[in-house]
Amino acid sequence: MLHGLVDKERRLRIAQADDSLEDVRRLRRILTGITEFKRLNVSGTGNKPNTRVRTLYSKFAFKLSQSVARYRAAREALLTLSPDGPWMQRYKILDDADVRGPGKECNEESEGRFQTSWIWLTTRSAGSASTADDEYIASMRAEWAKAQARVERWSEETELLTEEMRRVIAYFEWKSSWWRARRGDRADPTCRSGLSAYAMKQADMFKELAARCAHLWTPYFRSEGLAVPWSARYASSSPMDIDDADNSGTDDSDVESDSDM
Predict the structure, then answer these.
(1) How far apart are CA 211 and CA 241, in angstroms?
(2) CA separation (Å) from 183 to 20, 198, 260?
(3) Beta carbons of 180 and 141 less than 8 angstroms apart
(4) For 76-134, what is each residue's pLDDT tens digit?
(5) Where is this region: Disordered (predicted)?
(6) Range in 55-64, 198-207, 216-225 with the lowest mean pLDDT
(7) d(Cα 34, Cα 54) in Å, to the nearest integer?
(8) How far is Cα of residue 133 from the mean position of the Cα atoms in its chain?
């Protein structure tokens, strides 16, 4: 007898949580529509129209707070009736930060980093058909399209960033080879030695720049599971070798300047 009452109470609370969550979504769509209507048609028209819209918004916001309270009460009851039940995968903790959407609001993060609240992603019960199904499906279709666009944009940005890094290293390598090829351009023997030394210095500088960039970027690519072919060319050297080369190069230049003096 008692077990039957517990089961009936559990099903009642599940229905209450489902209806409350549906009301939260419905009221959020209404509030989003009011905000958009105010932005397009009321803003800048005077205090009286703005006050009317604000009063209407506050009315639905109060209803929203009541629906949120009903959902939280139903979930608390379910925690007592069935602490480890399968309902926990669907009826999650509803924080104030979760009561948002559909879509991104003005004070939220950029479109590229926006994450949809879980209230719009949770599955709906089979018997929760309502007259607002078409509106819900339409809003979720728009959110899915935006999320898909964000995924494609981030994938494109990853490809562009990888290509930009490759081009930077390729440019440094080409510039190093270009300076090495300039060593014997001058036929005048009086300045050939100095120009050759300067060309080698520039070539080594660009080579070290390429190695530095490779050592800075390769750990990131490895952590993200991205394969870049140019990282293998710099696997044998280390940033410490580059720092030693810089120090030795500085010492040589100091010795040359001292000898010139």
Answers:
(1) 10
(2) 79, 8, 22
(3) no
(4) 998 888 888 888 888 888 998 888 877 776 666 666 667 778 888 876 665 555 555 66
(5) 238-261
(6) 216-225
(7) 9
(8) 30
